[in-house]
Amino acid sequence: MLDILIYPVSGVMKLWHLLLHNVFGWDDSLAWFLSLFGLVITIRAIIAPFTWQMYRNSRILAHMRPERAALIAEYDGKYDEKSIRELQQRQRDLNKKHGVNPLAGCVPALVQTPVVIGLYMALLRMARPEGGLENPVYQPVGFLTADEVQSFLAGRVNNVPLPAYVSMPAEQLEFLGTTRSEVLDFVLPLFIAAAIFTAINMAMSMYRSIQTNDYSSGVSTRMLKIMMVLSVISPIFPLSLGLTGPFPTAIALYWVSNNLWTLLQTAIMMFLIQRKYPLTDEFKTFHSQQRADYRETQRDKRSFRWNRTKNRILMLLTPWNAAKLHAENVEAKTARVNKINAEKAAKKEIVEKRRETQRQMNKDAIERIKKRRAEIKAKKKELNDAPSDDES
């Protein structure tokens, strides 16, 4: 099923290779090398408008957050049909007023992820033909013919074959006319550069997320924490995967060019966003209050855990007070759990009542549609059964 993803990637590479080799007359290896950069330019240029829309929507949604929070607070605890319809309509009006589309942020990921998968599959099939490199049986890969696959396998950059990779067996490297040290000397700086670009990209994304993070959303806050961890771990992947996995030189070149494009694009778009849509004073005040409330909640959690741990330590040091300290821990935990459960139960009750109202609204809408269809059908039948002028 994923084979279909190979076609757009191979088609773009083929067009760039034909342009550079057949039109401009450049060397075949150089044409294949530059076609990888052409692939990056083509794909990223196509999704650049969607990426800008994502940045813009993200900033506008941040600006809307104080208004949206006030709107939700106004209807907090209301679950009747009139209130639900009013809230939905006012939310739609708010989106329309600011000209925001909540789904626009999904487009870049939906476009780029299949491209990355298709690229890896295409390059891996080209670099590892059926029968092995010693007795290759060249097969078409997407829009690339068997002759073009053979031409790609013969391509070299700095005397390093495009299909070669560091962990490739020595006999295959010898067949390609290179050695592991030559491949390592060429790709290691590329993987290091890819790791550096990745780290900078993650740092900029994290900075942008910290500026506008929604601390009232547990999902958003957890995602920010995950991003902080990934910003440390993600630069390791280009190095570890590139040096230990079957990642051909061609993929190393793609990683560097793609991450460099991302770095420049992110820097430019962040600058433009800050110029065109600077954070408002209203949002800064609202965001600061949200962050303060979140930090206060976290302090309460840490205080509760520390008191419980302290009592456990004292139970070991003063066994004669163990019963009293244990009772304090149980009492504190019970009070905390009851408070949390009461808050959750109150919220759940409102949510369930709203869902029930929404389900009834949906049923009423379906009944109205059925009734309307029945009326239309009856009118059509009445017209069909009416005698014509000739019969009358």
TrEMBL record:
GO biological process: protein insertion into membrane
Keywords of the record: Membrane, Transmembrane, Transmembrane helix
Domain Membrane insertase YidC/Oxa/ALB C-terminal: 32-270
Membrane topology: Multi-pass membrane protein
Transmembrane segments: 30-55, 100-123, 186-205, 226-245, 251-273
InterPro entries, A to Z: YidC/ALB3/OXA1/COX18 (IPR001708), YidC/Oxa/ALB_C (IPR028055)
GO cellular component, one term: membrane
Subcellular location: Membrane
GO molecular function, a single term: membrane insertase activity
Compositional bias per record (Basic and acidic residues), positions renumbered to this chain: 351-368, 375-384
Annotated region described as Disordered, given as residue ranges: 351-392
Pfam family, one: 60KD_IMP
Transmembrane helix in keyword set: yes
Family that this chain belongs to: Belongs to the OXA1/ALB3/YidC family. Type 1 subfamily.
Subunit record text: Interacts with the Sec translocase complex via SecD. Specifically interacts with transmembrane segments of nascent integral membrane proteins during membrane integration.
Stated role: Required for the insertion and/or proper folding and/or complex formation of integral membrane proteins into the membrane. Involved in integration of membrane proteins that insert both dependently and independently of the Sec translocase complex, as well as at least some lipoproteins. Aids folding of multispanning membrane proteins.
PANTHER family in alphabetical order: CYTOCHROME C OXIDASE ASSEMBLY PROTEIN COX18, MITOCHONDRIAL, OXA1
Protein name (Swiss-Prot/TrEMBL): Membrane protein insertase YidC
Organism lineage string: Bacteria, Bacillati, Actinomycetota, Actinomycetes, Mycobacteriales
